[in-house]
Amino acid sequence: xxxxxxxxxxxxxALDRIGRLHVLAEAIPSVSIAEAVxxxxxxxxxxxxxxxxxxxxxxxxxxxxxxxxxxxGNRLRIMxxxxxxxxxxxxxxxxxxxxxxxxxxxxxxxxxxxxAEPFGERTRFALMEGVxxxxxxxxxxxxxxxxxxxxxxxxxxLGVGATPTWSARPADDPARRRKxxx
Amino acid sequence: xxxxxxxxxxxxxxxxxxxxxALAPRVGRLCGSIALQHGDxxxxxxxxxxxxxxGALRDxxxxxGWVRRIAVHESVRVAQRASRVVPVEDxxxxxxxxxxxxxxxxxxxxxxxxxxxxxLVLRDLEGMSEEEAARLLDAPVGTxxxxxxxxxxxxxxxxxx
Lengths: 182, 161
Hints:
The complex is a heterodimer.
Chain A: H1 17-27, E1 31-38, H2 42-49, H3 52-59, E2 63-72, E3 75-82, E4 90-97, E5 100-105, E6 111-119, E7 122-130, H4 140-158, E8 162-166, H5 174-179
Antiparallel strand pairs in A: 1-7, 1-8, 2-3, 3-4, 4-5, 5-6, 6-7
Chain B: H1 2-9, H2 13-35, H3 39-53, H4 63-83, H5 88-93, H6 105-110, H7 114-125, H8 130-137, H9 141-160
Helix pairs in contact in B: 1-2, 2-3, 2-4, 2-7, 3-4, 7-9, 8-9
């Protein structure tokens, strides 16, 4: 109740999980993000993706093996073996929820974010990766191609079509051009 | 909250995410009330600006005042930018003040200039004094008072109509 006696139902703006991942991608230095609409329902997409021990080594071209070492609610501690030659696994702290997964490697050596939202009978899916440090931008060309490739690989594994809506290189992205009025 | 701020200042992605989640509901009320249909964009722009500049916040206890200032300025900026390019169908839908008996705050707010909306939100939603609102908006207190008077008059007019 305001001081003028009117119960005001103020309009509220909201941020969905895809929007939240874009906020992080804009603010964390040196990461890349790709987004696509997948021709499959949210439950099917996230049901497969959220089994990260199985899904990540299959669709992420840089991860050979992933194991969950500890789970406390939505917080996980995992070990990831990256690349074909990596013998020593990299530990990650993870937040895993419905439609959301954020992984931070020890020492902030790497970060991975995944977000999904229902989009009618389809699913908006976004993937962010990179080295979250100043200077990590030297690798952005690599991570940019990597996240795009991973999203396409995910669609192939699920056997569904994918319409890219946000590229890893914002200057090339039609959605970004519209947003910026360009 | 202090731990989240310090974690975000160190560049920890998990802390940055937790800070965004903690701030989004309150920032969303500010952005939604000032930027209206462009509130989601204003909210996103605000949170990006907060994370990018979090290193400049010396005292974590001052977080909300600092965030509120960014949210108001981003909301006004986004709303003003959007108002420069208004699709014809939007023009036809607004300005008629067709208020239902169950008060449609959004419709009343939409008829106010964005500077009046911002002051109304800071006073009535945030409970700020006119002096505090004036400092936040970089405007003279007299200007804030007159804008607030006009905004409340418009509200009263719609409510009794």
